[in-house]
Design a protein that fits this description.
Blueprint lengths: L8 E4 L5 H11 L3 E6 L13 E3 L2 E2 H6 L4 E4 L5 H13 L2 E4 L5 H5 L3 H7 L4 E6 L14 H7 L20 H24 L4 E5 H7 L2 H10 L16 E6 L2 E6 L3 H10 L3 H4 L7 H6 L1 H12 L4 H10 L4 E3 L3 H6 L1 H6 L2 E6 L3 E6 L23 H7 L5 H9 L4
Parallel strand pairs: 1-2, 1-6, 2-5, 6-7, 7-8
Antiparallel strand pairs: 3-4, 9-10, 10-11, 12-13
Helix pairs in contact: 1-7, 7-8
């Protein structure tokens, strides 16, 4: 079956993580992506992470496959003309500049939609395009703190803790990709594009779900509570002789099975712990009693015993353990792509598995400006002389 996303063309002005993650998802789905960067420096993330070849490092490489990269000085008349011509070609534009920057560059929605009324234009900002914080720099750490995620993450009584990956950027990118797909579907019926916006702050707030629901009812802000579930016990991380495991005994039946596995029948009917609400209330007394038993076992041994009893359980993996696990191998989550200058590179594939039109990793992340001349020649039909003149003026 033909993948209809292969007909979608995306003009990508984004950098760092939120915007590039959005276009990563669109590119994996089959869309053709042209990533536009500044001559000389390019996307700021090209300078982040472990460099494994000149102009290529781990951060940029992880989120910029399936894209052609070109460099254009968009603050010049000639560069702006190139962008306007590409806007006629494109179905989608993605940008994550601060509010107001695209208008100064002449690449905002109002300008480009006059050139191409069918354009779907996605803006990803830090905190939205209205309100007192609209021009605040949109970095992930700041959004996690402002959006409430850090306020409920970390050990009880300890310092608020950010999530170990840039979840603010990633979630905003995911919502951006979802918004683009919906806007494209709307365009199928109307023939007209639209401007959609999302932000790191709004994405973080969307993740609050039941925590926000509890606040709306009680008026009390939830606090960091480590790895526990606020309404279920035991549902947390336990130590073993050589690592940690997570156990989620989510009801009284699972609690009974856990007591049998750990050979602590006296706790099952203990009046402090015989119902889930009591176990939650008396968690400070319960957890040390369980930890006393779990540390008697090795990690793999306890995982097997608890798992055989039908209790939800899983290891707390290091990356080495994760990527060498049989489950990850079976899912073929880690794939290799070959770069003509770098060689073989490992990447994590899309987590969505389609039966008829699968996502694909077609091309490796590109070097800065790698496809500039190809795009100008093939998409805009520029002559060699025209391209040479742009190079001499450092427009590209």
């Amino acid at each position: 079956m033909e993948n209809s996303m292969r007909n979608i063309k995306v003009l990508d002005f984004s950098q760092a993580l939120a915007g590039p993650y959005c276009t990563l998802m669109l590119g994996d789905a089959g869309a053709e992506i042209i990533k536009v960067e500044r001559p000389g420096s390019g996307d700021m993330s090209r300078a982040w992470g472990a460099e494994f070849a000149p102009g290529m490092n781990s951060y940029f490489a992880s989120i910029n496959r399936n894209k052609k990269c070109m460099t254009v000085r968009m603050d010049s008349d000639e560069g702006r003309d190139i962008i306007h011509r590409l806007a006629k070609w494109a179905d989608v534009v993605v940008e994550n500049y601060r509010p107001g920057v695209t208008a100064k560059l002449g690449i905002d929605y109002d300008t480009l939609s006059k050139i191409n009324p069918g354009i779907v234009y996605c803006s990803i900002t830090g905190f939205g395009t209205v309100g007192p914080d609209k021009k605040r720099p949109g970095f992930d750490l700041i959004a996690q703190g402002m959006g409430g995620i850090m306020g409920i993450t970390g050990q009880k009584g300890g310092m608020p803790t950010k999530v170990g990956v840039a979840i603010g950027d990633i979630i905003a990118g995911m919502f951006g990709a979802f918004g683009v797909m919906r806007a494209l579907l709307e365009r199928e019926h109307t023939g007209v594009g639209q401007h959609l916006e999302t932000s790191l702050l709004e994405g973080q707030m969307a993740l609050l779900t039941f925590q926000a629901g509890g606040y709306f009812i009680t008026g009390k802000s939830p606090e960091p509570a480590g790895n526990i579930h606020p309404f279920i016990a035991p549902y947390e991380t336990f130590p073993t002789q050589d690592g940690y495991i997570n156990i989620a005994a989510g009801n009284d039946g699972l609690w009974s099975k856990l007591c049998a596995v750990l050979d602590i029948p006296e706790l099952e009917k203990d009046p402090r712990f015989d119902t889930n609400p009591k176990r939650v209330q008396n968690r400070p007394e319960l957890v040390p009693l369980l930890e006393k038993e779990t540390v008697k076992y090795g990690k793999d041994e306890l995982l097997e015993k608890v798992g055989k009893a039908g209790i939800p359980v899983g290891p707390v993996n290091t990356f080495e353990e994760l990527f060498s696990s049989e489950q990850v191998k079976a899912l073929q989550t880690v794939q290799e792509v070959v770069h003509p200058k770098v060689g073989k590179m490992k990447v994590i594939k899309s987590p969505i598995n389609y039966s008829k039109t699968p996502d694909e990793i077609r091309t490796p992340p590109s070097l800065l400006g790698e496809h500039t001349e190809q795009i100008l020649a093939e998409v805009l039909t520029m002559s060699e002389a025209e391209i040479k003149a742009l190079k001499e003026k450092t427009i590209i």
